[in-house]
Amino acid sequence: MYFFDTYAIFEIINGNEKYEKYKEYPLIVSVLNIAELYAGLLKEKGKGIADEWYNKLIFDVLEITSDLIINAVVFRYQHKNEDVSLTDCVGYFLAKKYNLKFLTGDKFFENLENVEFVNSR
Questions:
Q1: How far apart are CA 94 and CA 69, in angstroms?
Q2: Using CA atoms, how far apart are residues 47 and 108, in angstroms rounded to an integer?
Q3: Residue 44's CATH number
């Protein structure tokens, strides 16, 4: 099972063949990923498409606890010279907490433990 970062969901929506095998897995995310996805679709494709995908996709949303978010904030701070989002840090920690692989195409996570990195190019 996988925790989907927002990048991975965008790649699936955009029909990237490298993400084809992940389409059958449940979309396990946090509310932050849903917000990031919706915002990206809204910006790139408009409200109608954003609403369409939001209503079409079925999300399994994991709870973000205060301890988990603090750990994610500290992790992000420790890597402040990298371009890593808080949403991705939260997702990475949620994946670890629930024994899921963190599915991403973000190069920052490529060599970290518990990550399934998919180079989208």
A1: 9
A2: 30
A3: 3.40.50.1010
Nearest to 53 by CA among 32, 30, 27: 27
Count: domains in the chain:
1
Query: Could you list the residue range(s) of the whole structural domain that residue 68 is in?
Result: 2-14+24-117
What integer pLDDT is reported at residue 39 of this predicted model? 98
Tell whether 71 is covered by a domain. yes
Q: What is the pTM of this model?
A: 0.92
Any domain includes 61 = yes
- The residue length of the chain stands at 121
Helices 31-45, 47-56: axis angle to 10 degrees equals 140
Q: In whole angstroms, what is the distance from residue 11 CA to residue 106 CA?
A: 12
Q: In whole angstroms, how far apart are CA 63 and each of 6, 42, 46, 66, 92?
A: 16, 24, 28, 10, 13
In this prediction, the residues of the chain whose per-residue pLDDT falls under 50 are none
